[in-house]
Design brief:
single chain; alpha/beta; two-stranded parallel sheet
Length: 293
């Protein structure tokens, strides 16, 4: 089952309150559950417990590692860990991850994000869980000055909103063009994974306008991807690691559930079988390889 997996950092299921929830203020349709509303037609939806059964506010390193390995990283560490994965979590990501399962099963995963050599070759790298996973799997990275400029990858800031994007002269896309790039990659690969983390940054640092902009960015990309994919033979899956952006009256992560949303072929079946963060990798892996874990 060809799958586009969109990961948005820091988006949770909030209340239907435009005063405090940018997703409610943005009038989202595809991401309606994040605004406390019912999912749109054709969308399979399930809330996932982002706390992983561990006290404290959910954090990125443990949440993302759990999603990408199927191992409860917060429980393993004894607490939620922020930022990038440390040594114990790296071992998980460099072992039995979603990408390594697909490669071992003879399938073709790809990471759609466009990288720079400076990030990958840093002496003291601050690599996300996804970067660690892809690097260990042997799947090649897509580079900004190669695949990115050929329209075969997306920079993390596909809309060109940040100074970093402008300093690199990264290609700027509207949502339809960005989704078209991802849809073409789906035609060539069994799994296409794209990570977007400006949603979490806006939740931590953003003024109300920046929060609203990022809620709209997420909605626009998902909406365009639903339209761009051939959902009769592929599917779109959207997931996050924890809440943040959906509560604009503070700058912390939240205890809100994280969303799992899917559209297309076998979408409802997948969502019905993913009851926790730990389920995502084994269920996606078995669906795509045809091998039951």
């Amino acid at each position: 089952m060809r799958t586009l997996l969109l990961f948005f950092d820091g988006i949770g299921i909030g209340r239907d309150d435009p005063e405090t929830n940018p997703f409610a203020a943005a009038g989202v349709r595809r991401l309606a559950p994040l605004a406390g509303r019912k999912p749109d037609d054709g969308c399979a939806f399930r809330p996932l417990d982002a706390t992983l059964g561990v006290p404290g506010l959910p954090q990125s390193a443990t949440g993302q590692t759990t999603l990408l390995t199927g191992v409860n990283a917060a429980r393993l560490a004894g607490r939620h860990l922020p930022g990038v994965p440390g040594p114990s979590l790296r071992r998980l990501l460099e072992g039995d991850s979603l990408f390594s399962r697909l490669v071992t099963g003879g399938r073709r995963p790809t990471f759609a994000n466009a990288y720079t050599p400076g990030h990958l070759e840093a002496k003291r790298p601050r690599w996300s869980a996804s970067t660690r996973m892809v690097r260990a799997s042997g799947v090649p990275f897509r580079m900004l000055d190669e695949e990115g400029r050929r329209g075969e990858a997306l920079f993390h800031d596909w809309a060109g909103d940040t100074p970093w994007s402008r300093s690199l002269n990264a290609p700027v896309h509207d949502a339809r063009h960005a989704a078209g790039i991802l849809a073409r990659l789906v035609e060539q690969n069994d799994l296409v994974f794209y990570e977007y983390f400006l949603t979490d940054i806006a939740g931590h640092r953003g003024a109300p306008e920046a929060r609203l902009l990022q809620a709209r960015r997420a909605e626009d990309l998902v909406d365009a991807a639903v339209d761009a994919l051939d959902l009769s033979r592929s599917r779109l899956v959207v997931v996050s690691d924890h809440g943040n952006l959906e509560e604009s009256h503070h700058d912390l992560h939240t205890l809100n559930p994280a969303p799992l949303l899917a559209w297309g072929a076998s979408a409802a079946d997948l969502v019905s079988r993913v009851a926790s963060f730990e389920d995502l990798t084994p269920k996606l892996g078995s669906d795509i390889t045809g091998v039951t874990p």
